[in-house]
Amino acid sequence: MVNEARPRAGTRSRKDPNDGPCLLAIRNRQSVRGVNLPLLRQISRHVIGQYLRYDCFELCLHLVEDAEMRRVHEQFLQDKSATDVITFDHSSLFKLPAAPRSTEQRPSLHGELYICLSEALSQARKFRTTWQMELSRYLVHGLLHLCGYNDQQPQARRRMKTVENRLVRRLANEFPLSSLLETRRRPPRRRPASKPPSRRE
Predict the structure, then answer these.
(1) Which domains does the chain have, with CATH numbers?
(2) What is the distance between the terminal CA atoms of the chain, rounded to a whole angstrom?
(3) What average pLDDT does this structure show over 77-91?
(4) Residue 102 predicted with pLDDT over 50
(5) pLDDT band at residue 190 using 50, 70 and 90 as cut-offs
(6) Distance (Å, rounded) from C-alpha 68 to C-alpha 85?
(7) What is the reported pLDDT for 8?
(8) What's the helix, strand, coil split of the chain in %, to 5?
(9) Dihedral sign computed on CA atoms, order 133, 135, 136, 141
(10) What are the backbone angles phi and psi of residue 7, rounded to the nearest 5°?
């Protein structure tokens, strides 16, 4: 389902020291569906902070379509097929200073997730669910990869799937996932000006 790739050279995002320990960027480069980005940001921060218990993170979410996902898949994993989410773990690029022995160093996440909305729509039809639920699942799965979970071996895959399912159910109970569909208000249509009645002679 999900592929974990090696860190990409030159992809470390620049961070303003005044931004604090948390940075979440979302790059929406797809037009398959309108996505409620503020809600997606809220959900992402909730999963990272409340479910996974990370209080320091630097993460970028890329929402892409099938063509771009295939290019990334081939370039970094030598696979031309479509996929739903690819995780790039950049934790090895960040050297945090050693914490004093009397205090516990805060855990941190650093990485990128490429999420394919085209696959979310396709899988939603296949499994009779919604693309919003699939999007949430891809987000959770990618974040679990950053936490050290892997799905290469059957036992590890089952363990990861169990955690993933539990977190997705919690999200569905705590957030209106259907609202991930962006609803833009369209301006009211103007009625054509009525013609004055013809004057009979």
Answers:
(1) 2-7+20-95+106-176 (3.40.390.30)
(2) 78
(3) 94
(4) no
(5) low
(6) 12
(7) 52
(8) 40, 20, 40
(9) positive
(10) -60, 145
